[in-house]
Specification:
By secondary structure, this protein is mainly beta. The protein contains 4 helices and 14 strands. Belongs to the SOS response-associated peptidase family.
Length: about 220
């Protein structure tokens, strides 16, 4: 399952693509990797009905049966028929998560004695802006024992069957990906019956394997304006 992705884009690109009204994330990184438990930008509909970029922590609340003294969260969501997830299927709990590439573990490329490397996927070699179909929720609880109970805004995103590009590397799942403003609009506003079809694999001709995103040099880093 996807537990790492990269965002290399601009704040203005996300605002324009999603028709968001404001940025509450204070987002100024030129390029960054996101791991479980990290904060990252999402786009959601706020209480006043305006779309906004917000910053949330990756990992939705786990089903209670799997929680002991802390909850590290669930990053990927597949079974939307589960009673645990049904509460967040409505548009007020949906969000879209901007990304430009995502990683899946690639055990077949592992070198003996080394770690399992990642394979990276993007829309094409230029790594266009795309979005995961996600959910978000406010939550109060313990993510790390040393931090104690805190209040959070959490997010996770849907997964689905892998397409022919992902399946040779990761046979179980791939993220549900939105590639057009119309799909983003539907995910953020439509009823679940109208939006649920977006939990589907991206066509194989819309995804390619790419090398890891190069880290910007200090003199190349700029603010996302």
């Amino acid at each position: 399952m996807c537990n790492l992705y990269n965002v290399t884009t601009t704040r203005d690109a996300v605002l324009q693509f999603t028709k968001a009204f404001r940025d509450r994330a204070g987002w100024n990184e030129a390029s960054f990797d996101v791991y479980p438990g990290y904060q990252a930008p999402i786009v959601r509909v706020a209480e006043d009905g305006q779309r906004e970029i917000a910053r949330a922590t990756w990992g939705m609340p786990s089903p209670p049966a799997y929680v002991k003294n802390y909850d590290p969260g669930v990053t990927n969501i597949r079974n939307v028929n589960s009673p645990h997830w049904r509460r967040w299927l409505g548009p007020t709990s949906r969000c879209v998560v901007p990304f430009t590439s995502f990683a899946e573990p690639d055990p077949s490329s592992k070198v003996e004695g080394g770690r399992v490397p990642n394979a990276w996927f993007a829309g094409n070699e230029d790594r266009p802006l795309m979005f995961f179909a996600g959910f978000w929720t406010p939550w109060k609880g313990v993510r790390k024992v040393r931090d104690g109970e805190q209040e959070y805004e959490l997010f996770g995103f849907l997964t689905t069957s892998p397409n022919e590009i992902v399946s040779p590397i990761h046979q179980k799942a791939m993220p549900s990906i939105l590639t057009t403003p119309e799909e983003v609009e539907a995910w953020l506003t439509a009823s679940w019956d109208e939006a649920r079809h977006l939990q589907r694999p991206l066509p194989g001709n819309m995804l390619v394997i790419v090398p890891p995103q190069a880290k910007p040099k200090p003199d190349e880093e700029g603010l996302l304006l």
